[in-house]
Amino acid sequence: MFGFSNRFFLLQPIRMGEESPDPPFQEKYKNLLDSLTEVELAKSSEELLVDECELPLIDLNMLNLGDSEREACKRQIAKASREWGFFQVVNHGISSQVLEKMRTEQMKAFKKPFNEKTNGNDPKFSMGSYTWGTPSPNYLRQLSWSEAYHVSLSDILGSGGLCTLRSTMEQFAAKVSELAQKLAEILVEKLGQNYSTFFKETCLQSTCFIRMNRYPTCPISTQMFGLMPHTDSDFLTILHQDHIGGLQLVKDGKWIAVKPNPQALIINIGDLFQVWSNNVYKSVHHRVVANKLQERFSTAYFLCPSYDTVIQSCVEPSAYRKFSFREYRQEVQNDVKCFGYKVGLARFLL
What we know:
- The protein is an alpha+beta fold.
- Helices cover 33% and strands 20% of the residues.
- It is built from eleven helices and 15 strands.
- The strands form three sheets. It has an eight-stranded mixed sheet.
- The longest helix has 27 residues, at 164-190.
- The chain is globular, with a radius of gyration of 20 Å.
- The termini are far apart.
- The model is unreliable at 1-17 (pLDDT under 50).
């Protein structure tokens, strides 16, 4: 045994607990870190070192051109959703000023002392919005070296100028919501389905979420997830990330690293769209790898329906049984609590 909680963390600057913005990973997960063996260390390092690639890049300005360019753009979006489950877009209609302001306010929130973030009073989001690490990891591979604010837009709508962070999030959400609705409509159209109003009626601003992520530097980064492998429990996710990198996804059965492009937004298909399209569009596993030298920030927007919305395939025979979004969320939460990971769509296969 190597005793990594001592071997590595004593190399880090020691700061008074109340003043540090970092969650106490080394204290909470000391037993897991101490149990890491040399064999596990070598195996973990090898697993996380993967080839880097660029996601399909789609210029959404093509949607504003002639019929042929517009149709070509729609085909690219549908193809990437079928073959990758991920793609990136430029000329998306969200100004760099909005994105930069979102990043600035996010960084301010995360740089506050850890104790201040956990008391739930600032920035006055719902109780439980701030999270860090993993609730009950059974082994190191279930530990996420990150902290996040997972915020329902119902918490920030109509915030006005009362809180700079909340008003910035509301502005960001309004712009990203328009993009999400546009992409969802295109994906429905390319399935040949006539559900043009479904997402506008069921995925309201008040039912969607924003997740602000911070991935602190990690002394054993080559063995640690910033965010453990998962799929997203929504229809669509729109991600704005910085230049640091660390996002990885599964393509053709292998993990690959995504080359960061700060000028682009990353789009990925969620579980609900995979069900709705009857497995035409793919919700693929992805993860974030921790970084030893640089912290990483990202902001994700999740296009979610109301909890009572019934999710079912738009074509028959369906691969999945019907279920409500509420039921799906509850199953995911139960699985994470019991097993330390999400089982997901496998529970709903017919």
